[in-house]
Amino acid sequence: MAANPIWWRDGVVYQIYPRSFADSNGDGIGDLGGVIQHLDYLAELGVEAIWYSPFYPSPDVDFGYDVSNYTDIDPKFGSLADFDRLVTESHQRGIRVILDLVLNHTSDQHLWFQESRKGKDNPYSDWYIWRDAKPDGSLPNNWEAIFGTPGWEWDAKRDQYYYHMFYPQQPDLNWRNPQVRQACLDVVRFWLDRGVDGFRLDVFSNFFKHPDLPDNPPAVGLRAFDRQKHIYDSNQPDMIPLLRELRELLDSYPERYAVGETFMPTPQSVSAYTAPGLIHAAFDFEMLHCRWDPECFQKAILATEKAMHPDSWPVYTLNNHDTSRTASRYHCGNNDARLKVAAALTITLRGTPFIYYGEEIGMRNIHVPRRFIQDRIGEKYWPIFDGRDKNRSPMQWNANSHAGFTTGKPWLPVHPDHGTRNVEAQRKDPQSLFHFYRRLIQLRKELSALRGGLFQPVTYEPRKLLAYLRQDSEQTVLVVLNFSHRPVRLAMGGELRRNGWVLALSNKHDTLPAIEKGGYLSLQGDEVMILTEKG
Ligand code: TEU
Ligand code: CA
Predict the structure, then answer these.
(1) SS3 sequence, 114-170?
(2) 7-106+178-441: which CATH architecture?
(3) What is the DSSP string of 425-485?
């Protein structure tokens, strides 16, 4: 008997960056109305849930990750009524809704901070991390912010410094204040009551800082931020009881889910945060740092498999709104062959696959000249790092001007390849990346072993081949991925020869090629083969 279905374990999660998905009113910025118009497309793709990057009111210093009100929708995205419609229409299509909760910091425009900075006797005075300057006038400690400034910003009104891990306009909340804790858990409850199915927790492992705020010890690194070990400004033990409390709150509603964005994660820290009774999952991003080599992916997968508690469930992803598009990272030119291998890898592992919008049609990074950069860290770190605009370009719906994303002027340029690379064209082409994604997602729905089964490495050949089994009590699935453009062979020895195999999916063959003399299975260049045991 296959285990009971669990949506967040079995299905594929699709990440939407709302600014860039679809614009319904011509102002050049994607919105909730635009998403609703395309829910049928997402149902066709077969995704189980959608994670939305933030659409709360925000002054957009960090494009939504600086929230000025946790319980409303920014008018540029729509209204709470639009949101309710989005939830209803999603649920009608069997699609769950995951919200991004940014609770490490608020915007400096949030009412809590506006009050807090008024003075030490304000009711919100202790909601943020305020400290006096040292007697010699210097900063309270040596902490650095990751977005290129010291971690402390002087506030003349309050005559004190406040701490921020990101932009100065993103002051960190003081999670040691029970009122903050209560207010944030109330935010969670607010959205649960509105029918939200789950949350992605932005940099949750940073909520608590060491209570004494000691200096971080030095480290070797490029940026000031990297030249210290972040042992006092993140990963404090206080997070564990908070996650337990959050989990209890989630469990008081049916089938709710939380996936954490671990800051500077290791498989070990991810495993600690996802132990039974804590959150369901957390990103470890191991695969994001892999070069195009099976050896690297195999190592990343095994590190995750090894670190995770047996009852915990990994998540796997190759992208998000902070990182390069897969096609650009792996220098695919205009060729999508490799992207099919990447898709098969993410969708057939023992974990929840997260797919960033546009990956299913192979969107590439856009080029943003320096003077047009919108992402402020891109300005700050240019030319070492040109920011995240490149992987946030408008979704390519069709070959029309602005790719069918907007009738107005898009907030970021659409990729010039949208004339040929777009949803409409790929829908018509049965060999397209889009249809390959769709078939993979469908296969995951059909084969229980691909959903809940064990991961069993078979073999890998550096730069060439990766093969693994997925197994449950009902079936065995063999996944073989050719990472090279040339043919490769997999020795089908021992266990693999046990029974016959049936071809479930391939991008190059319609039927299973004969196993050659000596027991070799031959794959063409860039081939994905997914085989099931003959029943
Ligand atoms: O990201 C945290 C994080 O690790 C990033 O800041 C990363 O270092 C950066 O993107 C460099 O490429 C989360 C969100 O995903 C990100 O979009 C936000 O900017 C950040 O938190 C602050 O909320
Ligand atoms: Ca709009």
Answers:
(1) HHHCCCCCCCCHHHECEECCCCCCCCCCCCECCCCCECEEEECCCCEEEECCCCCCC
(2) Alpha-Beta Barrel (3.20)
(3) HHHH-TTSHHHHHHHHHHHHHH-HHHHHPEEEEEEEETTTEEEEEEE-SS-EEEEEEE-SS
How confident is the model at residue 3, as a pLDDT? 67
**Alpha-carbon distance 358 to 361, whole Å?**
5
Ligand 1, atom 5, lies closest to the CA of: 322
Nearest residue (CA) to ligand 1, atom 23: 65
What's the one-letter identity of residue 123? P
The string of DSSP letters for 207-230 reads S---TT-PPPPB---SSGGGGB--
Atom 4 (ligand 1): residue with closest C-alpha?
263
Tell the CATH superfamily of the 453-533 domain. Answer: Golgi alpha-mannosidase II (2.60.40.1180)
Contact status, residue 105 vs residue 165, Cβ threshold 8 Å: yes
Contacts for 240-245 with beta carbons within 8 Å, 24 or more apart? Answer: 240/272, 240/273, 240/278, 242/175, 242/181, 242/207, 242/208, 243/204, 243/273, 243/278, 243/279, 244/277, 244/278, 245/185
Task: Report the first-to-last Cα separation within the chain, whole angstroms.
Answer: 15
Pairing of strands 152-155, 96-101: unpaired
- Going from N- to C-terminal start, the domains of the chain cover 7-106+178-441, 453-533
Q: Which pTM was predicted?
A: 0.98
Encode pLDDT of 258-317 as tens digits.
999 999 998 889 999 999 999 999 999 999 999 999 999 999 999 999 999 988 999 999
Ligand 1 touching residue 293 (CB < 6 A): no
Query: Is residue 526 within 6 Å of ligand 1 at its C-beta?
Result: no
Two tokens at 195? Answer: 């029918």
Is residue 1 predicted with pLDDT exceeding 60?
no
3-state secondary structure of 37: helix
pLDDT of residue 463: 96
Query: Residue written as tokens 């040929």?
Result: 420
* Identified catalytic residue from 31, 62, 202, 526: 202
What is the token pair recorded at 85?
């419609």
